[in-house]
Structure formats: structure tokens, C-alpha cells
Structure prediction request, 227 residues.
Amino acid sequence: DTAVSQTPKYLVTQMGNDKSIKCEQNLGHDTMYWYKQDSKKFLKIMFSYNNKELIINETVPNRFSPKSPDKAHLNLHINSLELGDSAVYFCASSQGGAGGRNEQFFGPGTRLTVL
Amino acid sequence: SQQGEEDPQALSIQEGENATMNCSYKTSINNLQWYRQNSGRGLVHLILIRSNEREKHSGRLRVTLDTSKKSSSLLITASRAADTASYFCATGQNTGFQKLVFGTGTRLLVSP
Prediction:
């Protein structure tokens, strides 16, 4: 009965590889997000989708490509991984199109380590 | 940077004591939210206070908001060891896509 789930929980890979992280929410929300939390615990939004439409893209390198096949899923594909991509990536969801107006529900995170 | 600042960065108290964390932000907001993050876990929403509210309570939590000073505080009363976590404030912006902007976090350690 997990509300927001992410897979995998841990991801260790070499520089230059391509990897994907998947996210699913069963809350019936129409807005989903990807956040990046760095080693200093700074949490910053990367992308937001509302009803499968991209509404926030926070100057993230185009090596990162989100894809939302439906309202309940938001996946993150990363090409040509770099050392600086190492971080914890969180998926979140909320009800309503205005992302800052309502509480957000977070997944458990995916810890990405690029060697 | 729009990122808010939290103060203190770290707080260590004994069980039963109260813990107060402060958050300052820079821009006009629609609301301010507090989240808790246990080590190695995702964030959990605690409380939301709207820009036209000054104080809000939820169980042992009390949040205040002063929009003239662009600041908020979170008070946890009668703390427990299970309250040990990082606490983040997040502001819902009034411009653009009204995204959430998170503060730098306060690490709270409650010792038995």
C-alpha cells in the first residue's frame, strides 16, 4: 500500500553509462516531481509534471530526461552519467496543478553513486 | 538563490525538552510547509501554514509565520527520541509555477 514508490533504491554505475529511475504513485494525484538531494542535504526541484505535461524544468542538463507515460508514473532517464550526478533522487506527488500550494508526498529515494 | 535558510543547522536536546527551529525565506509566498526526513528516508509532510495565517498547531507541533519578517518557526514540545530527524521548511512561491523551495534543514538529535 506504498503511496509513492521508486525503483531502484540504490544504483551504482560507471561514468558514461545511461540509467533510469522509475516512480509510481497510487494516491490519484495529478502532479509529480523529481528532486535532487546532494551530499549537504540541499533538496532542489528538477522537474514537475501535471497530467503528463511538463510544467517545471529547472535548468537541468538535457542529459536528464523525464517521461510520464500516465498520471501515476514519472520516470527519470539519465544519459552519460557524470560524477556530479551522484546524489539521492526523490520522486514526489501532490494533488493540484499548482505545485507549491499543497502538501507533497515523497518516495523513499534512489541513491545514485557514479564511479 | 531562492533557497531559505534554517537556523540552527543542528540542535541537540534531551527527551522532554522543547525544540525550536527557525526558517527565513526571501520571496513572496503562498504558504510555508515543514517536512521531516529520517536518516535514509524520504520527506514526510508535517504541517502547512498559509500566508494569511499566523499560527498553526498539530499535536505537539506549533508553527508560526511572520510574513513581514519573512520567517517561520517550528516548535516541537515534549520531544521524544523518535523526533530525531532533519527538519526542512519549504515555501510555496507566489510567482511562476508556484513550486516548493526547500530550506537548508535543521538536524535535530533528541537523546533519551
Notes: Chain B touches chain A at residues 3, 30-31, 33, 35, 37, 40-45, 48, 86, 88, 91-93, 97-102, 104-105 (CB under 8 Å). Chain B is about 0% helix and 60% strand. The domain at 5-111 of chain B is CATH 2.60.40.10 (Immunoglobulin-like). The two ends of chain B are 38 Å apart (CA to CA).
